[in-house]
Amino acid sequence: MLLTDIHGETVPLPDPERLVHLQFRRFAGCPVCNLHLRSVVRRHDEIQAAGVREVVVFHSPADELREHAAELPFAVIADPGKELYRRYGIESSARALLDPRVWPTILRAIAVTVPGVLRGTVRVPSARPAGGRLGLPGDFLIAPDGRTIARKVGRHAGDQWSVDELLALVPVKEPRP
Predict the structure, then answer these.
(1) Which helix (H) or strand (E) element contains residue 150?
(2) DSSP character at residue 155
C-alpha cells in the first residue's frame, strides 16, 4: 500500500528496505500525542540506526496537521476518514480520557504545552478536532515483507510504546561472517 504524507511524499507500507513503526495518534495538536512524539523526535536518530522508519497517522485533515506537525522528522499521514484506523482495529472510546492512568500524562502534557501557547510558539488545537478527542493510540512494528512483528492497541490516550519498548522489539541482526 502506498500512503501520502502531509507534504505530498509517497510512503510505502510496508517499506521494502526497513521496519516500519506505524503509530496511530489522535488529532492535530493533541497535547498527549505531542508529548509522546517529542520523545520520539529526541531519539529519532537512534530509531533510524536500528533500521526503523517512523510513520505517524492522525485522524485530522492534512491542512490541520501541517499547522501542528510539519516540522516532525518523519512521515505524518492524515486519515480524517479513519480508514487506516479501521484497517488496524484502532478505535475511539471515552476511556481514552476517562481512564485514571492517563490523567498524570494529561497534566504533564498541558504543563508542557501551555507555556508554548502563551509564547506563541505552539498552536492551540481545534476546540472540535476532526474525528473527535476520544481516539485511542496504536503501535505496530511491520517487517519489510508485511508481517506485523508486534502490536499494541492502547487502552487510554497515553498507552503507547516508549522508544525503549519499541527498540526492544526490533530483531537483532546477526553479524555477517
Answers:
(1) strand 148-153
(2) S
The radius of gyration computed from the CA coordinates of the chain, to the nearest angstrom, equals 16
Name the pairing type of β-strands 10-12 and 2-4: antiparallel
Give 99-125 pLDDT, tens digit per residue. 888 888 888 888 887 888 788 777 777
Could you tell me where the DSSP H helices lie in the chain? 31-42, 44-49, 62-69, 83-87, 95-98, 103-119, 163-169
**In the chain, where are the structural domains located?**
2-159
> Whole-model pTM?
0.89
d(CA 37, CA 158): 11
Task: Name 142's bridge partners.
Answer: 20, 148
Show the cell assigned to 126. 481545534
Fold of 2-159: Glutaredoxin (3.40.30)
d(CA 64, CA 78): 9
Give me 103's grid cell.
490523567
